[in-house]
Amino acid sequence: MENEEKLKEKDSLKRRIIILWIVFAVCLVATVILWFVSNNTEAEYEEVNVTVVSAETKQVVNRKTGSRTNFYEVKVRFDGETKNLENAHNTYMYPEGKTVKAYLSNGRLFANVEGVNSSTPIATVYFVFLFATMIMLFVAATYSGKLAQRKNA
Questions:
Q1: At residue 41, what are phi and psi to the nearest 5 degrees?
Q2: Using an 8 Å Cβ cutoff, are 4 and 120 in contact?
Q3: Is 116 exposed, middle or buried, given 0-12, 13-18 or 19+ CB atoms closer than 10 A?
Q4: Torsions phi, psi of 95, nearest 5?
Q5: pLDDT tens across 3-55, in order?
Q6: Residues 84-120 pLDDT 10s
Q7: DSSP letters along the chain, please?
Q8: How many Cα atoms within 13 Å fall on the side-chain side of residue 107?
Q9: Which of 104, 115, 105 is CA-nearest to residue 78?
């Protein structure tokens, strides 16, 4: 009786593992397809000139590791409004009062074209599938390891 339950449990685990690997494969294929689609998609934007209002570097320290991460907050004036300049990678290129080139897309201002491209809906879906693929790989591998341990026990 006890052996029958263990066999049923192993069969159930095998089915789950197969399903997990299939979901991983589907996510991987979708990720690759979405990568090609997002790279071939031309995002609509307009090149505009903006005036820098302020540029600050905010540094966050990880308490456990001591590592530091910089976040750049650049404010610019465009059409009489103060807006955030998204995707800025530094502050030294943005001294106060300087007129710089920015990219306007869907009411948002970006420091470079890569920021525009990575904010499109297709790029967002790509990133969701990319993370789902990594998670599914981890989960499927973990469950496969559990099954291998049960076979050895």
A1: -85, 130
A2: no
A3: buried
A4: -70, 145
A5: 777 777 777 888 999 999 999 999 999 999 999 999 888 889 999 999 999 99
A6: 999 999 999 999 999 999 999 989 999 999 999 988 8
A7: -HHHHHHHHHHHHHHHHHHHHHHHHHHHHHHHHHHHHHHH-----EEEEEEEEEEEEEEEE-TTT--EEEEEEEEEEETTEEEEEET---STT--TT-EEEEEEETTEEESSHHHHHHTSHHHHHHHHHHHHHHHHHHHHHHHHHHHHHHHH-
A8: 0
A9: 104
Strand partners, 59: 70
Which of 81, 74, 114 is CA-nearest to residue 98?
74
Q: Evaluate whether 36 touches 26 at the Cβ level (below 8 Å).
A: no
Q: What is the Cα–Cα distance from 113 to 87, expressed in whole angstroms?
A: 9
β pairing state of 99-105 and 81-86? unpaired
- Length reported for the chain: 153
Under a CB-based contact definition with an 8 Å cutoff, are residues 126 and 137 in contact?
no
